[in-house]
Amino acid sequence: MPLSLGDPNPHPLDIALGRNIRLRRKSLGMSQSALGEAVGLTFQQVQKYERGKNRVSFSKLAGIATALQCKISDLIEGLEDGEDTSDGHEKSTLLGETGALELLQTYAAVKSPRLRRAIISLAKGLSDNPDESLIEEGSAAVPRPAREARTRWRRRGQA
Known about the structure:
Blueprint: H1 12-27, H2 32-39, H3 43-51, H4 58-67, H5 72-76, E1 79-80, E2 83-84, H6 89-95, H7 100-109, H8 113-126, E3 134-137, E4 140-143, H9 146-158
Antiparallel strand pairs: 1-2, 3-4
């Protein structure tokens, strides 16, 4: 995709770089304000970098990498022609969702396989896509309505 000076849309490379910065920052439990303070930016500027709205200069990228305790190459890893060519593109996009990393960290702290399946069942039941809600039983995935999953959880809480 050629660069255009008047193009109001962020370039895919800027978006992908911003996503990588956000994932690294969140994995460290660092706020946008803390990152901004470490590199001489406001949290709004960090937010614009993470969304790809503003381009990150190389000198700022070096400062951001230092603040995030990683190499520059870690932040640009997997970027090629504006696309994340690794199989993890969809997963990294999902991890970029607000609260996703915290949910994953909390899930990882649950050691019981039965409770982990219950958490997945609840999350799928609460999903905005009830047709896609699947409860895994063994190796086969069996569709189950979202309402039934919510009802089971209500009953469990009353017991």
